[in-house]
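New to this. Explain these tokens.
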Amino acid sequence: MATWNASSPKASPCSSRRRTKAPARRPSSESPPPRKMKSMAEIMAKSVPVIEQEEEEDEDSYSDVTCEKCGSGEGDDELLLCDKCDRGFHMKCLRPIVVRVPIGPWLCVDCSDQRPVRRLSQKKILHFFRIEKHSHRTDKLELSQETRKRRRSCSLTVKKRRRKLLPLVPSEDPDRRLAQMGTLATALTALGIKYSDSLNYVPGMAPRSANQSKFEKGGMQVLSKEDLETLEQCQSMYRRGECPPLVVVFDPLEGYTVEADGPIKDLTFIAEYTGDVDYLKNREKDDCDSIMTLLLSEDPSKTLVICPDKYGNISRFINGINNHNPFAKKKQNCKCVRYSINGECRVLLVATRDISKGERLYYDYNGYEHEYPTHHFL
């Protein structure tokens, strides 16, 4: 690099500045011809944005990704890439199957560090479900009342009443009931969900005042007085640890699912669909696969849904059918019905036919709106 010496007459700062301005004093005849400037349209046409370059580079780098399960690279719109190991998996090749593309980061089974949940002890199960203690005298009194109801004369009116909602019939063995609840507690713990047998209204989500059946588009059917008594009876049985004969099992294809651990009669109340109540507009980009419609309002911004991602019960694990497949439709043995109960919207799961022991429970996720995609279901 050249240095400036103050003793040199050729290196004065002033003369240096004059030399830089000298070309500007040239005669007009010697000035260079004006340069032709390109238009902005020509410049933009030849330029490639950095974002597009990065996208092209990403597409090139992942163009040879194949599914780790089937080895095929076809169906790239259903090929999920793990954000940690960059391996690819088809949604329908995963176990359990992924119904739709997850929102946000996604990790494969090997990178998610899923650890098996230990079997809970009897004391922890009772604490998990907050089982209330009760005396045997109360049991015998309720049993005698139920027996008297069954011994009524079989008139036509009574036969019609048999089509009403039936209370659940728990397993007689208390140890077996404890084991059934243990499977539910294990599944909820594995997914980080707390047990709740009622709707939750969390600050920042939809308030309880928003859940009014009068806002339902076209009106909502009201639960009859008899069925309401049956529902209240079942809820008190749940609080005492008397649950329907159901177990939660893990299937490599369907994930957690529910099986009957004993016979269940047609029109038997199974469970109420529970979880956090929120506006649908807040959950439109939620990737939870178990969001349930609670209220369909004339104003779409006031439509409510049940989100069992933090709180829930056994209804969270009852799987839906593929309503595009005639064979899958035959598996349906439950239905999901929305009722107006004391002016509020509630969702109940009810058996639609007799269910035998070992049979899995299935229902159609879709109501009359038919907006939930089920073509990926088994």
